[in-house]
Description:
The protein is mainly alpha-helical. It folds into 3 domains: about 1-70 and about 345-415 and about 450-460, no CATH class; about 75-185; about 205-315, no CATH class. About 70% of the residues lie in helices and about 0% in strands. The protein has 20 helices and 4 strands. The strands form 2 sheets. A two-stranded antiparallel ribbon has the order 1-2. Strands 3-4 form a two-stranded antiparallel ribbon. α4 packs across α6. The radius of gyration is 25 Å and the shape is globular.
Amino acid sequence: MRSRDINVWRNLDWWIVALYTVLVFAGWVSIYAASYNFDDVSIVDMASRSGKQLMWITLAFGLGAMIMMIDARSFETLAPLMYFVMLGVLLLTIFIAPDVKGSRSWLVLGPVSIQPAEFGKFVCALMLGYLFNTYNFILTKPKNFIKAVLIVLIPFGLIVMQRETGSALVYLSFVLVFYREGMSGLVMIAGLCAILFFVIGVKYGNEIVGITELGPAVVLQMILLVLIGMVYFFVKNRAAARNMLIGMAAMLGIAFLIDKWIPLDFVYVGLFMCGAAVVYLVLLYLQLRYAKYLIVGGFSIAFMIFLFSVDYAFNDVLEPHQQIRIKVALGMEDDPRGAGYNVNQAKIAIGSGGLTGKGLLNGTQTKLKYVPEQDTDFIFCTIGEEEGFVGSVFVLILFLILIMRLIHLAERQRSIFARVYGYCVVSVFAMHVLINVGMVIGLCPVIGIPLPFFSYGGSGLWSFSILLFIFLRLDASRMESY
């Protein structure tokens, strides 16, 4: 047993540990800078946020050491139990958690508050690894694919019911794991198209040209172009793709000519063209008996249904504060004193930092508290103001190195369980960094996603640490047969 413990520490990837340490302590200093207000408070003062964060950091290192001493096989063995316990806690949280800024996602345990959704990420990742490692599991089988999707969607739905949309969206990053394990690239393309169609449908849905709603009309033409691309690259029938493109151009030309004398609603024109494309694909299937034509036709129908559900989803499903944040992010509304205040002030703070920044503890926007949540979700603006463009890029490079190193570790795993879990870790970190930084600089709506190791809070730091150190423990034992 002693020799195994020695091997674990010897096989530990110390590069990741070094990156983790640098990021954690850089985050600690940033929290001190964000909460410092010209008084002479020590960085280790337990009455300050930096002092409390130091306590969370110390405990996080202790958690990491404890995880390294656990038998690696235990994580796979206990994954189903941990998953169902996690679902129970998430469900219970909906009913007993207090309302905090409109969400019910925090459990109060005496002087400590924890967010179960954060800890659910590594549990969900373990369960995915467990499922993918079961005997004769092939993701492309419909039954197996549905199981994998449900493992992600059930906690996603429970967290949405807690009105914690930001944390829930992180669970969707596991689609990258599905892609690595054999899921068709069409699903990834469909997801990207859905995002694009949603943005265009919302942004231009109320703009009228003649008697045509611009948003749906443009999206329908984009759907046709996507179908032509799928026929060309996925079905690999260049003649059919060429025929569809010629037909699309001809029908649009005829519609524009008619519109000069009789006003046409180009939404109906687009629907007719999409319908004609589906009929053409069905006829090709009946002629050639090649199922991919039906798959492409199915995508067309799904896209059209999605398009005409965008308005309902935006106006009736999303909360008013979520709607206004999306509108501000898309440039549909300018609300510098309301929903756009945080982002506007963050941009001012980052821009004022210039190339090299104002220096540690010298950020005026930060010190005067112009940016709300500046030591949690908007911590990156403190880095931008005080360390400038150079410091911001350096932090992003550290995260990039961490993610690339994690991909390298995931690829060298000898078990499917460890590899899948490793890519789950990569997905979570990449999603958090991209969304948080995009949110702060105005490229994404404000959805409350913390920056790993930088944002203040014990739940976030511990969940990221547990997520990472479990993978380090699996990697340290990759040569063992288990």
